[in-house]
Amino acid sequence: MDLSDSETPDTPPNIPKRQRPNILVTGTPGTGKTTTSELIAIATGLEHVEVGSLVKERGLHQGWDGEFQSWLLDEDKVVDELEPMMLEGGKVVDHHGCDFFPERWFDLVVVLRTDNQILYPRLEQRNYSVKKIQENVECEIMQVVLEEARDSYRPEIVWELRSESIHDMEENVQQISDWVDRFMEKS
User: Fold this and answer.
1) Confidence of residue 187 (pLDDT cuts 50, 70, 90)
2) Cβ 71 vs Cβ 2: under 8 Å
3) SS3 61
4) CA-to-CA separations, 29 to 16, 37, 135, 149, in angstroms, rounded
5) Region Disordered: what ranges (predicted)?
6) Residues 111-125, mean pLDDT to the nearest whole number
7) Is 33 in contact with 140 (CB distance < 8 Å)?
């Protein structure tokens, strides 16, 4: 999908206009969210906020799920923690879920997608259990994260981007950087 000519969406009246945009980078685990978010932050000067790290560091969870080897996210605590940061603007938020974040926070929502023949080995390299790999692969097949994004945010701010290679990642970062430039010109 070529988004280089995409316009930055107008901000609806109930969402505050920021000088610097907030971007959500989401997708199934293994699609390249963290690396892409870090590269966007470097290219644009925005601040990368990795939700998974915040959950662990600041205890924004309800305990550990041994079966899936992950923290049980406390969505209310996460939203309370992020609210002041998001009001400032200039954030690139990286998380595999998106439906609990307030719509007003984001000016752009990027959903990264990866073919399962590429995704499966990536998850194996992370030493995920077979059950966890299968759950994530099924999530990608069923487009769970994409549908969450489409159901949670205005359609004009949701971008679906392939993330299967370094080339894809470089193109995605360039398109998003160009979008950030246009956003800041309009501010």
Assistant:
1) confident
2) no
3) strand
4) 30, 14, 10, 15
5) 1-31
6) 97
7) no
Q: In what order do the strands lie in the sheet with 91-94?
A: 47-50, 91-94, 23-27, 108-113, 158-162
Asked if residue 78 lies in contact with residue 60, where contact means CB atoms within 8 angstroms, the answer is yes
Q: Give, rounded to a whole angstrom, the gap between the first and last alpha carbons of the chain.
A: 26
- Residues sharing a CB contact under 8 Å with residue 137, sequence separation 6 or more, in sequence order: 116, 119, 120, 123
Overall fold of domain 24-186 = Rossmann fold (3.40.50)
Between the alpha carbon of residue 2 and those of residues 40, 179, 184, the distances in Å are: 17, 12, 20
Residues 75, 84 contacting (CB under 8 angstroms): no
Q: Which residues are annotated as a binding site?
A: 30, 32-35, 126
CA-closest candidate to residue 175, choices 16, 67, 13, 23: 23
Q: How is the chain split into domains, by residue range?
A: 24-186
Written as six digits, the tokens of 48 are 């990368």
Annotated binding site for ATP: 30, 32-35, 126
For residue 15, what pLDDT band results from cuts at 50, 70 and 90? low
Percent of the chain with pLDDT over 90: 84
